[in-house]
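Newbie here. two chains, one complex. Structure please?
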Amino acid sequence: MSAVLSPPPLSEVGFETSVAAQIVVAVIVFAVMLQLVPILLLAERKLLGRLQGRYGPNRVGPFGALQPLVDIIKLASKEDFAPRTAATAIFIVAPVISLFTAIATIAIIPFGDTRTDGLFGADYGLYGIDVSIGILYAFAFGAIAFYGLMLGGWASGSKYSFLGAMRSAAQLISYELAAGLSLVGVVMMAGSLSLTAIVNEQDTMWFVLPQFVGFLIFTVASFAETNRAPFDLVEADAELVAGYQTEYGGMRFAAFMMAEYMNMITFAGIATAMFLGGWHGPGPGWLDPVWVMVKMAGFMALFIWIRATLPRLRYDQLMSFGWKVLVPLATLNIVVTAILVVLV
Amino acid sequence: MVQILFFIAAIGAVGGAVAVVLLRNPFFSVLALVVHMMSLSVLFLLLHAEFLAAAQLIVYVGAVMVLYLFVVSYVGGADEPIDDAGVPRFLAPVLGVSLLFVFSLAVGGSGLKLLGTRGGDLAEGFGAPADIGELLLTRFLLPFEIASYLLTVAAVGAVLLARRRRGLEPLDEAAGSRGEGAR
């Protein structure tokens, strides 16, 4: 009876690949991506140090390479405490939401095309999933990710945390709109939402050239979406101590931190796939994932460079820049792209 | 797998909806509504309506409920009971039951025919953005345009009402500080 009532399996309407391939690809992708976080942490501190005329971490291990490991051990050995004013259950769940959504989004970043060499007895792709809604999947999880910050700030029962959470609410909504609109131009040119299809469209020309305005808007919006300088008002240390994560310590704080860096990686991956030609590059086919990684590393270096260069915006500047500059510009970009796509 | 997901989502949807009504703290009420919306989007996904599921998350969970949460946590109101809106209390269950009756009629008149079967046949690419976009621009063009017109009217009206409530501000000055309204 239950077999009769159940809807047709997903493979009938969507994509199909063997279970073994799915598991292997998922494990490889996530094992590699999770290792990127400590590397990124170290690279950021090193690069920031150099940009500010100092050395950065250089005491633990060769060239300070073991610094992230030591940091994690320190955080892991700390007590997980909650303030007496906190709503404890939500306080505990909030970092989990943040981390879960950050990791889930990585599934759509393509590291290579769909392979047909029959390694697993069926076609498989060098990505977690390739869904028809494509980039909307990332934005759907971005929508849930916001609750991690919001609930964390609210449940802490502290004024600094609460103000940080409120700021994050306004900032994320404003800039998510701009980020979404900036990608519509690319979607129109490629004629698909699927990230692999978009990358395949870029084999002759990367979309960063025809969609340069969209790329600029997306880059700026992604700084705001990941709470990075110059848009880190959510955790502006001079006024809010640390914003929504003020009351967090130990591994809960580490979870928030990790989610933030995972978001950076995700946005770098989306920018690579949407604008920078994804896996396209000279060399044999097995270099595809390497090219993706190189481009992502370049985009993340830009994140760090900007952080070292620009001071933080004022709150009203943040809002008026988002609504009066980025959103109209992104809309204009869509209109112009639409006309050109029809005419050319 | 599908059955397990369905029951988790169904329990989330029904439980969330009940909790919205029963919880006394408005903040938790809104959170229950968020759980409800997310469960609904899982149900959409199980019905192969991928685009609808994503739209549900982005629009409702990501924008509408965020604003609810924003307002509720700023205004607070956890100490004040929600009742005493000037409406007699017995009206609420009466209205609720009659709404349930109307919905039951609507559901009974349409979808139940397929109960116990495997459901309708799905074409290739069903529920994908391309399909939905084509339908919106051909078969459902008029309703689509009317809906967007209605939304524009609502947005303009909201701006106008918000400005009037602030009182004495003259028009040209208000135009200069529109960025504050957007906050």
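Moderator note: The CA atoms of residues 151 and 157 of chain B lie 10 Å apart. The helical segments of chain B are 2-22, 26-46, 50-75, 91-110, 129-137, 141-165, 171-176, 178-182. Thread marked as resolved.
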